[in-house]
Structure prediction request, 129 residues.
Amino acid sequence: MVGRLLVGAMMAVLGAWSVRHLLRPARAVWRGDPSGIRVSPSVAPASYIAFLTWAVPLMAGVGLIGLAVLLIPLFGGAVGLPGLALLALAVPGVAAHIAVSAGNRPRFLVPPPYRDARGWLIALVTRRR
Prediction:
């Protein structure tokens, strides 16, 4: 009982903390302002917004599942369904992130300062010609 409560509380706190820290640099990345942006070194600023389309639902889903672990004794097992729905929503976000990273498309997911840049796949094909 105590272990379940501890795990549920840690998952809820981890989910909320992660979403907050993932969304913090989003406005600066969209404007192209390099000052104060601490983005993961493996995520390019051009694809950061697309990265958020799967990372935020994933971490929010983890947080909601943690909250569901805490609330199952009160409300039953259906409490975890919104968290599972968010986890499922992360799957198309991964495809969007791959598309933006590879080809810098669709444009509405690419911040305006980076729309002229090439994706890694287009740069690779152009370099081989």
Helices lie at 2-23, 26-31, 48-75, 81-103, 120-128. Residues 18 and 119 are 27 Å apart (CA to CA). Residues 2-128 form one domain.
